[in-house]
Amino acid sequence: MAESEKEAALPPKEEFSDWYNELLWMAEIMDVRYPVKGLYVWYPFGFAIRRSTYSIIRELLDNSGHQETLFPLLIPENEFMKEAEHIKGFEDEVYWVTHGGKDPLDVPLALRPTSETAIYPMYKIWVRSHADFPLKLYQVVNTFRYETKHTRPLIRLREITSFKEAHTVHATWEDAEAQVKEAVELYTEIYRRLAVPILRSRRPDWDKFPGADYTDAIDAMMPDGKTLQVGTCHHLGDNFAKTFDITYEDTDGEQRYAHQTCYGISERCIAATLSIHGDDKGLVLPPEIAPVQVVIIPIIFKKGAEEVLAACKDVQARLRKAGVRVEIDASDLRPGAKYYRWEMKGVPLRLEIGPRDLENNVAVAVRRDSGEKEQIPLPEIEAGVLSRFEAIHESLYEKAKAGLESRIFACSDLEEVKEKIQKGVATIPWCGKRDCGLAMEDKIGAGILGIPLEQEGNSKEKCPICGEETGTRVYVARTY
Ligand code: 5CA
Ligand code: ZN
Questions:
Q1: How many CB atoms lie within 10 A of CB 408?
Q2: N-to-C CA span, the chain
């Protein structure tokens, strides 16, 4: 694409939807011109962000006893159709492969919308005894869902390209419950590494995963105040074990049904990270996932140009040795045009080095997140850069956390909820009865997001529908 095509300014972030679409294009994250609805193409720059993001996810899973695996994309119809609730939840979203060449297939094959029905027939064979537990596997794959809601890059896809799904097996219901807790903590930690603060809640029963006993979910708040479900952890009880006949021999020699969990994250984690931190100038990336972490801009005048360039190269070599992803922009563009370009790409730190800086033996460091300008002595450039990365990460997180907290509104009646969810998330007492929950959703015109996983449940308040006393508040939000 021509440079000039991308010179146009980004819409202000306040116009979030336009800003988001333009950002993905101008910062070269995703190309939306692929000729199938809901399918998008990763630009190499976007893919580099994906790679570093998923290496955080892999690291945290690997370090907590998970093993990576890979199952087939195609699921035979007879396996897919075994679990009644699961079918009900997914049947309208499945793509079917019905032919091999010109021949109709004996058994139609589903493109996995998620992999329970691919993995669990194998778990039936693999799981033998209590000594096999916990079994904790995960894969990072593409999945296909024929979504009928408005599709959006990184947010609602028909081919989810980066579906991380974990599937665990345990002896008891309680062991599986503990695993769901571990998963929620893991996801919280993943988002902490992305500097993204999150809400954690238990989904109401009518919104749980098809086939699960319950679903705990992680939501991020987007700039427009709507929430995005960026991870879910499901307690599957022994529902799938009964369907797929996954049993184990217990210590007393008895055959028992296993208990299972599954939890998933998709490229929505990248959508949230880019949306929450970005600004009117483009991306703002946490250093850990930035494809370019430092850009060095030589400030060149006729006199002393060679020395400046040599110093820039020396700084680049030293930073590379320290593990920093660093580029020099020695192109012919004016400094202003260079700043624009690298700011759009979210490079966390810009180093400017000119003749006067060399005289003082310093580089001028400019932070992408705050615009702050400071001098770093050249002899300490490695430590100076690395400590600023930490500071940038922390202040991105703190700023996002303050933004989230300022948009959670404790409400006392449904009219107030209706008003506040235009800006963020509302909380309101709920007695826990299904009918009251559904009536509330109906009156508000938005859904109950969930019951916060941790809250002070001691205040006696009243359910706005039936008037019953309750110590529980729920989140209500407009959602993506
Ligand atoms: N088998 C379970 C756990 S892996 C499962 O499929 N859960 S899920 O349906 O809730 O999906 C897991 C996560 O994937 C969701 O929480 C959401 O963050 C993300 N996700 C779901 N559908 C899409 C979609 N169409 N596009 C992008 N991300 C999606
Ligand atoms: Zn009630």
A1: 16
A2: 31
Q: Which ligand is nearest to the CA of 120?
A: 1
Of all protein residues, whose CA lies closest to atom 9 belonging to ligand 1? Answer: 209
- Closest CA relative to residue 184, chosen from 452, 473, 449: 452
Q: In what order do the strands lie in the sheet with 96-100?
A: 74-76, 103-111, 96-100
| 208 CB within 6 A, ligand 1 | no
d(CA 346, CA 293): 9
pLDDT < 50 stretches in the chain: 1-5
Residue to probe by mutation, ligand 1, list 154, 268, 480, most atoms within 8 Å of CB? 268
pLDDT at 94: 97
Check pocket membership of 220 for ligand 1, CB cut-off 6 A: no
| pLDDT tens track for 368-388 | 999 999 999 999 999 999 999
Query: Which residue owns the Cα nearest ligand 1 atom 22?
Result: 156
Those residues with Cβ within 8 angstroms of residue 372's Cβ, 6 or more apart along the chain or in another chain: 366
Interatomic CA distance for residues 338 and 349, integer angstroms: 13
The helix or strand, by DSSP H or E, that contains position 163, with its residue range, turns out to be strand 159-170
Q: How far is CA 66 from the centre of its chain?
A: 19
User: What is the set of domains in the chain, with CATH numbers?
Assistant: 10-277 (3.30.930.10), 294-388 (3.40.50.800), 408-477 (3.30.110.30)
> Which tokens sit at 479?
């959602």
Please work out whether the CB of residue 266 comes within 6 Å of at least one atom of ligand 1.
Answer: yes
263 CB near ligand 1 (under 6 Å): yes
Q: Is 165 in the pocket of ligand 1 (CB under 6 A)?
A: yes
Ligand closest to CA 119: 1
pLDDT value of residue 5: 46
Residue 2: its pLDDT value, please?
44
Q: Is the pTM of this model over 0.70?
A: yes
Percent of all residues in the chain with a pLDDT value above 90, rounded to a whole number: 95
